[in-house]
Design a protein that fits this description.
This protein has 257 residues and is of the alpha+beta class. The chain has 8 helices and 13 strands. Helix 1 crosses helix 7. The chain binds 2-oxoglutaric acid.
Length: 257
């Protein structure tokens, strides 16, 4: 089955082993340099971090701000932190995967972050759809999230959970649907279990979330959003390289630097 057919039917595509152990080690080490050295970061980069202790208590659960310490939950605009992250925007394995997912070479970069669920104190993420979203969103739902898994994901350790079939609704329905806080039957939920180096592609209308990580291992993902044909950006937010078309036909002269 093609990546596109699988995305349309299942809402997810998991490509195990797409990135080698050495590539993942390099990305993990670069990420550790960001999250382990936050006081040394210049202020403009420090402003892009969301710390566990600053999350809402309902997201942090039983973990107190003191227990959360300086742990980073989200590194926004990750591509600004090191060339190794920016290089993912033009990485041949990423571009080949996107071409297969969109069945087109006209796709554009939207944004990138690292979602870090630290050992013991990693917070949950509530149920939601990525389209529409209030941060950086396409005019249509023809956008996709990619999660490059640095540590892999395991059930009970903050792995991504998806609601089966929830992407099979129209854009109109998705605009008004409110999945946050809903209860789902256990048989409606699937856990994405994968090894380090896997790339997970997520349909933009698939309801998903993830539980807390209380395990002794971190669960780090590098997340990117890309838009395909017909997915012009709405709203004001832009990151470095937003709008970049690595192999598309549009000119890239107006891309944010
Ligand atoms: O990292 C996760 O578990 C979920 C992230 C996510 O769904 C998001 O950022 O939209």
């Amino acid at each position: 089955m093609s990546h596109r057919s699988k995305l349309d039917s299942d809402g997810t595509v998991v490509i195990e082993g797409l990135f080698s152990a050495s590539e993942i080690l390099a990305l993990g080490t670069a990420l550790d340099a960001v999250t382990g050295g936050t006081p040394q970061l210049p202020e403009d980069l420090r402003d892009l971090l969301t710390l566990e202790r600053d999350l809402a208590p309902r997201q942090r659960g039983e973990i107190t701000p003191e227990q959360a310490g300086d742990c980073v939950f989200l590194v926004g605009e990750l591509q600004r932190f090191a060339p190794t992250f920016e290089a993912l925007i033009t990485h041949p394995k990423i571009l080949e995967t996107l071409e297969a997912l969109f069945e087109s070479r006209d796709f554009a970069f939207h944004f990138m972050n690292a979602t870090v669920k630290s050992a013991h104190v990693g917070s949950k993420v509530g149920w939601h759809r990525d389209w529409p979203n209030k941060y950086l969103c396409g005019a249509t739902s023809n956008q996709v999230r990619l999660m490059l898994c640095i540590d892999g994901m395991r059930q009970g350790e903050g792995a991504l959970e998806v609601v089966r079939g929830s992407h099979s609704i129209s854009d109109e329905q998705a605009r008004t649907a409110k999945p946050r806080g809903r209860e789902w039957r256990p048989d409606e939920i699937a856990t994405i279990d994968c090894a380090p180096g896997a790339l997970v592609a997520l349909h933009s209308k698939l309801v998903h979330g993830s539980g807390p990580n209380r395990s002794p291992r971190a669960r780090r993902n590098i997340l990117m959003q890309w838009g395909g044909p017909g997915c012009d950006l709405v709203g004001e937010a832009r990151e470095m390289r937003t709008g970049w078309q690595p192999i598309g036909t549009l000119d890239n002269t107006n891309v944010t630097r």
